[in-house]
Amino acid sequence: MDLTRSLSDIVALVAGLVAVLAPFFWADAQAAAQPLLILGALLVVSALWSVLGAGGAGSWVTAAFGALLFVAPWAFGFDGDSASAWTAWITGAVTVIVGLLVVLQVRGRTTVTA
């Protein structure tokens, strides 16, 4: 079990849960509810799948969901609602950074050992 990979999956899981729970607690924009719920749920499922050891969708997919979450405020027009937008930006950025760091670490290990 790779500790870096499992930690990144847990971070992605927490970020997805934050995005899913945001419309119920602090994100008031109607336009933000669906994107945060759907993209957060996809992130949660992807991270859970990977944490449970079922092969996982991979760090690229996690980073892609994070990127979609990051651009959601502009794409769906809720960039004016600061709570919703900042939730999407922070959770998306964290997920992209963690996903890409794992990809780079795995790629660095395979080139060194090959």
Written description of the protein model:
83% of the residues lie in helices and 0% in strands. With 114 residues, the protein is mainly α. Helix 1 (3-25) packs antiparallel against helix 2 (30-51), helix 1 (3-25) packs antiparallel against helix 4 and helix 3 (59-76) runs antiparallel to helix 4. The two termini are 20 Å apart.
Overall spatial form: elongated
Helix content: over 70%
> What class would the helix/strand composition place it in?
mainly alpha
Largest sheet entry: none
**How far apart, in Å, are the first and last alpha carbons?**
20 Å
* Helix-strand pattern: HHHH
CA-based gyration radius: 15 Å
Key attributes of the depicted protein:
114 residues; mainly alpha; elongated
Q: Helices, strands, pairings?
A:
Elements: H1 3-25, H2 30-51, H3 59-76, H4 82-113
Helix pairs in contact: 1-2, 1-4, 2-3, 3-4
